[in-house]
Amino acid sequence: MSGAIEFWFDFSSSYAYFAAKRIDALGARVGRPVLWRPFMLGTAFRETGARGLSTTPLKKDYARHDWARLARAGGFDFRLPEGHPLIALAATRAFYAIDEDSPAEAARFARAVFERYYIEGLDTTSARAMGDFAAGLGLDGDRIAAACESAAIKDKARVMSESAVARGVFGSPWFFVDDEPFWGHDRMAMMEDWIRTGGW
User: Fold this and answer.
1) Mind telling me the catalytic residues?
2) Containing structural domain, residue 112
3) Can you name the residues that pair with 7 across neighbouring β-strands?
4) pTM over 0.85
């Protein structure tokens, strides 16, 4: 997608949830389409040796405080699911199953997954749960659930995660604008300025 803002994220990244709430409006303001691209953050962790915020002492407590603060500031509903972070492999696979036919529907699915996961604790680990959820959005749930278990979609999700890391992605959310990388929800304003000014 030429000129797109590439939005790379793990569904279990809470900062990605807040980015997902804002990215479409940002894209509209700067006249850029948004290319939604889930990946598995664990792939990056294996490469870097990092740990997630929710499993790192001190960082865990701060992050939870910060997420609640971001939710209050934005007026967003936000409740961490029990057992957070879940390994959202099924959600990632379901996204790419949908994306094969309609990137727009895949983006709609991703937005809905974020909303349901961070408000109602949607199970993002189960192919069947993802199929049922997709059916509730008017999509072919049985096809999507089956696709999540197919070799082709499993390979697609793996390759997308590996390709993200190969390009230098090590966190979520992550953005590319004309190959310029921006890491983190807190770099979205800088990214918008970069697009408006042509960079520096």
Assistant:
1) 13
2) 5-197
3) 36, 175
4) yes
